[in-house]
Amino acid sequence: MQLEQRAEQANPREQCFLYTELVSAMTEIAGKQILDGDTDRASVTLKKVAKYAEMIHMNLARDTKRLKNAEMLMHHTTYRLNEYLHRASSEDRPTLQAALKQLNQVQNELLTQVFNH
């Protein structure tokens, strides 16, 4: 909750990185929930991940500060989510695949912005 408030109230130039931190933290939580068999809570958490990933997308054009750090963190986050995907049950995989697809897209956008700056 603290990180969420910090991201919402941050300078627009810093929001991209803070939302990336939030996505990373929420992905770890969702992965642990899935591994613990708590798929309902994991689904709610992954919906929050999708919401914050959209915030990264929306704030990307305004944020030039710490872009490379955000891209590296997103790379790590997608790697971890992919690990959770391989260990998840078959019924949880579609939700994780959808989240992974969205995060891969955000990572590609971040990488493009890094190369453009």
The structural domain count equals 1
Please report which band the strand proportion falls in: under 5%, 5-15%, 15-25%, 25-35%, 35-45% or over 45%.
under 5%
Number of strands: 0
Helix and strand composition category: mainly alpha
Task: Summarize the amount of helix as a percent range.
Answer: over 70%
- Which term fits the overall shape? globular
Q: Low-confidence runs (pLDDT<50, min 5 residues)? A: none
Report how far apart the termini are: 31 Å
* N-to-C order of helices and strands: HHHHH
Largest sheet: none
Provide the residue-averaged pLDDT: 89
Total count of helical runs of at least 4 residues: 5
Would you write up a description of this structure?
The mean pLDDT is 89. The protein has one domain (2-116). 84% of the residues lie in helices and 0% in strands. It is mainly alpha-helical. The N and C termini lie far apart (31 Å).
Briefly characterize the structure.
The protein has 117 residues and is mainly α. The chain has helices spanning 2-9, 12-35, 39-59, 67-87, 93-116.
Structure keywords:
mainly alpha; 5 helices; about 0% strand; about 120 residues; single chain
Write the layout of secondary structure elements.
Elements (H helix, E strand, L loop, with lengths): L1 H8 L2 H24 L3 H21 L7 H21 L5 H24 L1
Helix pairs in contact: 1-2, 2-3, 2-4, 3-5, 4-5
